[in-house]
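Example 3.
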Amino acid sequence: MKERKITLTEKEIPEKWYNIVADMPNKPLPPLDPGTKEPIGPEALAPLFPEELILQEVSGEKWIDIPDEVRNIYSIWRPTPLYRAYNFEKALDTTVKIYYKYEGVSPVGSHKPNTAVPQAYYNKKAGTKKITTETGAGQWGSALAFACNHFGIELDVYMVRISYDQKPYRKSMMNTWGANVFSSPTNLTDAGRSILAADPDSTGSLGIAISEAVEMAATKPDVKYALGSVLNHVLTHQTVLGQEAVVQMEKAGDFPDIIVAPFGGGSNFAGISFPFLRYNLKEGKKVRAIAAEPTSCPKLTRGQFRYDFGDTIGMTPLFPMYTLGHTFVPAPIHAGGLRYHGAGVLVSQLLHDNLIEAQAVDQIESFEAGIIFAKSEGIIPAPEANHGIAVVIREAEIAKEEGINKTILFNLCGHGHFDMSAYEDYFAGKLHRHVLSDEEIDAAVSKLDTPVIE
Amino acid sequence: MKERKITLTEKEIPEKWYNIVADMPNKPLPPLDPGTKEPIGPEALAPLFPEELILQEVSGEKWIDIPDEVRNIYSIWRPTPLYRAYNFEKALDTTVKIYYKYEGVSPVGSHKPNTAVPQAYYNKKAGTKKITTETGAGQWGSALAFACNHFGIELDVYMVRISYDQKPYRKSMMNTWGANVFSSPTNLTDAGRSILAADPDSTGSLGIAISEAVEMAATKPDVKYALGSVLNHVLTHQTVLGQEAVVQMEKAGDFPDIIVAPFGGGSNFAGISFPFLRYNLKEGKKVRAIAAEPTSCPKLTRGQFRYDFGDTIGMTPLFPMYTLGHTFVPAPIHAGGLRYHGAGVLVSQLLHDNLIEAQAVDQIESFEAGIIFAKSEGIIPAPEANHGIAVVIREAEIAKEEGINKTILFNLCGHGHFDMSAYEDYFAGKLHRHVLSDEEIDAAVSKLDTPVIE
């Protein structure tokens, strides 16, 4: 029997996160104050985040210790298995070797708790009594609910009203772990009240929910805010999964030529790719890391590298990132985790420096790929993950045409058990490709008034 | 850091299933022909099952080899982890040691593929082109869809119409793996047509769906039928999980005093308990194995041991089992997997011989227990599993009162990701306890016309 899974023991949970900043040839540019356009210092983040997370956000240290308390909670589901995808390879009729890291075994079914747990931990250590956050369909909110419950921190989740009404399961999950879930816009915040005054029937948006969560945190001393992607410390926390994958690939006696991950804000992609990119930056290896974004929200492949707000309404500092403009509203594709206008600062700089690549995949191609995978490997992927799988198939086909044997590794960031309605829509022929025209891209980025970064 | 998970490698997937019949002091009584009341032989099952499964059904051999092809598919998710429930123990303020085997990591989120895979395999080997089965909410149907897809067997699932309409996610899961899912009653079978003729708006029932699936299989030579619990070979297949748990408890340097599992037809309970009961039967150990059934369907604690049909309509042979009568309709509790009128033959004989125990748990107690578990251990259990957790809490409290340290092992048979609406109803105060009155029990069993077995 050929070995399918490379498993690690609890003792092999990494003891450090990898901070790629230390190895980057060009360090990321600083965030700017939106008013003065001057670089902001760490102190500007103090109302929202505890000190240790801010230090990680601006750290240049290569390795950051993972506290034992965090490793202890990680051990509920970590280390996660790395699979050799024998059956998927067979289904593709390819000689390419394909591996995947599977993060769907976590209690919330995705990679999100990798950062939710340390964020809750550092907040607890700093005396935070309550955390606020926003969530769309609920992936991030449920991960943070899981984490806050463990550390006894109260959590208020502002959940976009349309999801709150239409996707109640994630809400029940958050309630089970003791979180308060509010249908946003609420009348609890100035931001929510102003929206409701203008439109009592507002179905909400992620931008509004962020505004509510940030307002609540910024105005109360023992309340902090947490974000599930984009920021440097979030990306760094996710490297725990890639660190495991490095060891697992070694055990498999292999090393990837290509790494693929779906791309929303960058935490999933950073998690799997940064620990391997380290070998490029330091040892001159030539791993290609490919971010798979949706054609409906193609900031990496068609956006511009310029300063922009992290949120839709414009409450955050300005970050140097690939963006379609913070007011861009992506089509309502099922991969909700990929519907973000910008890209994390670290990933943006790496892309600008040609150290990583990106490809855009439409929704139909992504589900076609996901179903080939589900039928061969037996695991039904989350819609986000399907974008990565589509790129794996493309690269396997190119390798076949070229007659070159390659090794591909991708991150199966979550299972699709909460997303079966998306598969239902696919089978019913209700999905659309959602490819943006050049005019739509131009219209989106033309709203930005910050200069393009050379 | 205390070790939380005891993990095994793929090489440690058991090579044999354990058939408890070999060690039972009183062998199970034979099934009877409903017409002649004479014992039936294996040949009576030939229209429905392939020969190798029938041989397993009547086998007296202690060990049955698990084919490499089955172990290969098992390796997608097996071995599953065994956890020491440190945080749950702490939440209960108990000195009892609690362990659980976690089957929720399978691609369908439950233990059901442990038997679906070998059933599909033996059918493939026998040349079966198509399998039919019934499913309620879809747990079993999706496990068999997963398995049939792997072996290239067509699968027709007759899904109870009310679930088909109200719980579409499992249906989409079955479709993803290529199964045909029909809303039962259909107009494809005589059984379905007769029901629809009488009531075109019938919402269906498991009994009707079984009739349709069995009719389709019985009338076509290369079509077979598959069942997800109750039968001997199904229970035997599930011992793969208990065999793993025996090794894992050894690695933990411990041995259970009490084993608990939820009880529907018996496959989950048999899976975890039989490999440990072996030590009782052969070495005189005193492991207590407790089946946790719902108070709304208390066949083990309040039913009678007598011959009864396995299905609601009365198409199967008569089996010697604890039953509430095959026409008994349990209240619509959320633990759909426990809503079965009877108990598997092997488990029934063991209970009759006082070699195992049973306790009934109402729905409210079960969810209260499940939420304590979810908040402490971080994994949200399926509603079925919550019944077992409630019994664990009871036994931990008894041990505390008695001042005795004990070791409890239970089977966490699945995650609750598909059942969050049940948790939502619990939080909304919409659940009821559903405890049957003596009159209701009497009314149910009084419909049986077979003698009670002494």
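Chain A has a mean pLDDT of 94. The longest strand of chain A covers residues 154-160.
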